C-alpha cells in the first residue's frame, strides 16, 4: 500500500491516517468540514490535498448513517482500488449499498474495536489500535486483493484481525459496547440531581461504571440509531433482570419472603461473577487471578515512577494497576496487581523502601 484516502477525520479516521503516515503511506484527508481535515493534516496525518489519481485504499470513517452514501459516491467516482469503512455497525451499511446497486467486490466492512471518551482529530493517536481487535466482515463477493489490503491496514495499525459475519458482529457489539454505553449513561444520569453530599461520597466503583458516560451523545445517537434492534434485544434481557432484582429487594422487607428474595439476589450476583470471568484478560488470555497489593501514594510528581521502579528492583512484574483518588486529599490508593507468588516479595520490598501499605 502506497497511497490512501481517508474520508472523515474524526478520532478513528485521523488515528488510522496517523498510523499509515508514520509507516510511509502517502495519506490524503477529506472531510465535510475542511477545517477538521486541516487540523488532522497539521498533526501529521497526511495532506488535505486531493489525490491526483486512484488511491490504493479508501477508508470511509463517517457516522454510520452516512457510510453507504459516502461509499457509493467514492466507488462511483473510482477513487480507489479497495474500499473499507470503519463504522461500528456492519449489516446495515452493506444492505444499503446493495440497495444502491453498488459493485461490492471492492468493498469490505471493518470495525476497529478501539476508541476514547473524546472525539475529533485532536484526540487521535497513531497507537490507538495497537493490540486491539479489528473486525473484518468479508463475503463471497469480496475480492481477495481487497481482503489483503485490509489485512495490511490492520497490520500497519498493529491491531489484531478478527473475521466475523456482519450481522453476528452487530449482535456482538450490541452486547459488549452499545449496551454498556447506555447503562453507564443511565447510572451517571442518577447523579445529575443527586444531593451534593451523596456526590462527594463517589468512589472508584461509580467512577468505573460511569467512565464512558462522558462520551459524545451525538456520536452515540448515530451509532445506536444504526443498530437499534440488537441493542433493544440485550436491554430486554437486562430489563427482566432489573425487574426481578427490584422485586427481590422489595421482598427483603417482607416476612416469609426474605429468604427467597436473598436467593434471587445472590443468583444475579453469581451470574455476574460468571460473566465477568469470561472477559479476556491480559494479552487476550483467560483472566488471571492476580493478588492485589494496595499502597498509599501521595499526589506529587514522580511518585508513580518511584513505586514502579521499586517494584522493578524487587524483580516483580506489575500485571495491572488501578488508582483510587481520595476526595479532597493530596493522596490516594494505588492497587498493584501481581502474580500470587510475587505478592509477598513485593509487599516486603515496598515496606522496606518506606511505602505505607493498606489491607
Question: Could you walk me through the main structural features you see in this protein, from its secondary elements to its overall organization?
Answer:
The structure is a single chain. The chain is of the alpha/beta class and 359 residues long. It has 3 domains: 3-164, NAD(P)-binding Rossmann-like Domain (Rossmann fold, 3-Layer(aba) Sandwich); 171-276, 6-phosphogluconate dehydrogenase C-terminal like domain (6-phosphogluconate dehydrogenase C-terminal fold); 291-358, 2-Layer Sandwich (Alpha-Beta Plaits), CATH 3.30.70. It is built from 13 helices and 11 strands. The protein has helices at residues 11-22, 34-42, 64-76, 91-99, 144-156, 166-189, 196-199, 204-210, 217-226, 228-251, 258-276, 303-313, 343-352, and strands at 3-7, 26-30, 55-60, 80-85, 107-112, 133-137, 160-163, 291-298, 320-325, 331-338, 356-358. The protein has a 7-stranded mixed β-sheet with strand order 2-1-3-4-5-6-7, with helices on both faces. A hairpin with a 5-residue loop joins strand 9 and strand 10. Helix 3 packs across helix 4, helix 6 crosses helix 10 and helix 10 packs antiparallel against helix 11 (258-276). The longest helix is centred in the middle third of the chain and has 24 residues, at 166-189. The chain is globular and about 70 Å long. The protein starts with a strand and ends with a strand. The relative contact order is 0.08. The model has no long low-confidence stretch (mean pLDDT 91).
